[in-house]
Amino acid sequence: MATTKWARHKFVVKESATEAREIREGFVDLVADPYLVAEPCDSKPISEYPLEGSDFLALELIQGTSMKQAQDIAAFLNTNVSYLSITRFGDREDAIRDVRQSAHVRSIDAERFAMVVAMLAEKIQGNNAGEIHGALVAVQSVSADLLAGWSKALQLSDDILNAFGEDEDPHV
């Protein structure tokens, strides 16, 4: 399940730590680049904000942007952006639901496969070439669906391992 959190934010100009840069051969200058930070300015409780804990959103501006240009960019964003929102997907509950759902789908697929194989066996006993051909097409179709389902299940497993780590206890 996806969850979206949103809140009003004000874009504020900040300066990066001053650093020494060679501005041309043999000449070094101390330079501080401006960047923007989205600071919450909503009356919502902090738990409702899209950024969590000590997270913050910063926009790094192109090197050489002046403070005036940065102020203009911040003013533009503050005038034209209503809310900052973040939608998160694939939390642990979603993964558990998907795995349980995949087990249910697997049992349905197993029943479908058994049914078309039984139908093929019945048609072979009847020795009717047209009916045998139709039953073979059904077996091929269900087999293709099974292979696609297995591929999807393997991708789901990889996604879960990537999201939650291979070494973590799945029962926590």
Unreliable residue runs: none
Count of individual helical segments: 3
Number of domains: 2
Q: Going across the major beta sheet, what is the strand order?
A: 2-5-6
Quaternary structure: single chain
What is the residue-mean pLDDT, rounded to a whole number? Answer: 81
Radius of gyration: 29 Å
Specify the helix fraction band.
Answer: 40-55%
Structural class determined from secondary elements:
alpha+beta
Question: Terminal Cα separation, in Å?
Answer: 19 Å
Q: How would you describe what is shown here?
A:
It is built from three helices and seven strands; from the N terminus they run E-E-E-E-E-E-H-E-H-H. A hairpin with a 2-residue loop joins strand 3 and strand 4 (27-31). The chain is of the alpha+beta class and 172 residues long. It has helices at 67-80, 92-126, 129-164; strands at 3-7, 9-15, 19-24, 27-31, 34-40, 57-60, 84-88. It has two domains: 3-88, no CATH class; 92-164. The chain starts with a strand and ends in an 8-residue tail after the last helix. Strands 2-5-6 form a three-stranded antiparallel beta sheet, covered by helices on one side.
Describe the structure concisely for a colleague.
The chain is an alpha+beta fold. It has helices at residues 67-80, 92-126, 129-164, and strands at 3-7, 9-15, 19-24, 27-31, 34-40, 57-60, 84-88.
